[in-house]
Amino acid sequence: MNDLIRRNPVWTVVIALAAAVLLYFIVAPWSSGMEEVLGRKQIFLNAVFNGVTLGALYFLVASGFTLIFGLMKNVNLAHGSLYLLGGYLGYEVSEATGSWLFSFVVVFIAVALLGVVLQYTVFRRMEGEDLRQTLVTIGISIVLADIMLWLWGGSSYQILSPDWLRGPVELPLVAAVRGDDIYFLRYPSVRIAILVASIVLGILMWLALNRTRIGMLIRAGVDDRDMLAASGVRVQIIFMVVFAFGAGLAGVAGIVGGTFQSVVAGEDMRFLLASLVVVIVGGMGSILGAALGAVLIGLAEQLGSVYAPTYSVVFTFLIMAAVLAFRPQGLMGR
Q: What is the DSSP string of 261-273?
């Protein structure tokens, strides 16, 4: 962490100040005369938590994308299709088995196997050919989108969360005051669970890449795969495992998206674009950058939709434009 602060002193100060202001608005007591129970503070808190949990979903999609695109330099523009396929498969498995958690296991394995097929048949034969990878994966995404539209139609599907995650949970944050009564913020349990799971997953991924032997081999293979191969390491197998893991994460994110939003045709392009923006803002190949970029984009979308709905879409691209103008490698990129 000290090395990170030394490398990015300006951005560390900016992020710390932004976090302090946000924390003040969340914790500080507001006047009780604003509105009764649904006061402005509750609206603000809901917008913030919606933005953070949406950022958690974006992180799940973008973390797989940053492994494949940012770290391995494979331009996989079919990543959004993997997300949508995971959502549809998750819906079918959860409906057939009645188990929400079991659908995560099945979908991760199924989409990861599809990722192995893509790595072996497409990217292994086109290493370093960015234009060919782009064109081929665009074609694959179109084919997958048409197949999914044929199988599931244009209807939207909602994946039901288990009973123990339904309903709201009361958070220790004052949302409104009415006389002597204090009302705490109530927020959907499933979104809190997904946020916690995303944080744990992000920490584990960072530790795996930076503190384990397999992470060292992955980073060495990206920097100089010929030298790593000459040392006896089977680089293609390592890259295939990483690609499969990134694809599996996209499939799992499809279940998450279908749980607190919906699964519908066209979401593949939305989440592909969101992943690109998150990776550009956060920095190529950086798990911490993907987390930071996902939270920034999620907050910009949700706060914008509440306080400036006409221009909410613009805020996302303003953030991306500012990062490209002043720090082209991304907030946490090197």
A: S-B-TTHHHHHHH
Kindly provide the b/e burial profile for residues 120-147, where b requires at least 16 CB atoms within 10 angstroms of the residue's own CB.
eebbeebeeeeeebeebbeebbeebbee
* pLDDT tens readout for residues 59-75: 999 988 888 876 777 88
Number of Cβ within 10 Å of residue 306's Cβ equals 16
Q: What is the pLDDT of residues 269-283, one digit of tens each?
A: 999 999 889 988 888
**Looking at beta carbons, which pairs linking 172-176 to residues 24 or more positions away fall under 8 Å?**
173/26, 173/27, 173/45, 174/29, 174/41, 175/39, 175/41, 175/42, 175/45, 176/32, 176/35, 176/36, 176/37, 176/38, 176/39, 176/41, 176/42
Of residues 245, 287, 211, the one with CA closest to residue 237: 245
Host H or E run for residue 56: helix 40-65
Cβ atoms of 195 and 56 closer than 8 Å: yes
Q: Using one digit for the tens of pLDDT, what is the confidence trace for 68-98?
A: 876 777 888 999 999 999 999 999 999 999 8
CATH number of 36-326: 1.10.3470
What is the residue type of 209? L
Percent of the chain with pLDDT over 70: 82
Q: State how far the Cα of 334 lies from the Cα of 328, in Å rounded to an integer.
A: 10
What is the model's pTM? Answer: 0.86
Which whole number is the average pLDDT over 242-268? 91
Phi and psi at residue 187, to the nearest 5°: -140, 145
User: CA-to-CA distance for 187 and 45, rounded, in angstroms?
Assistant: 10
Determine the pLDDT at residue 11: 54
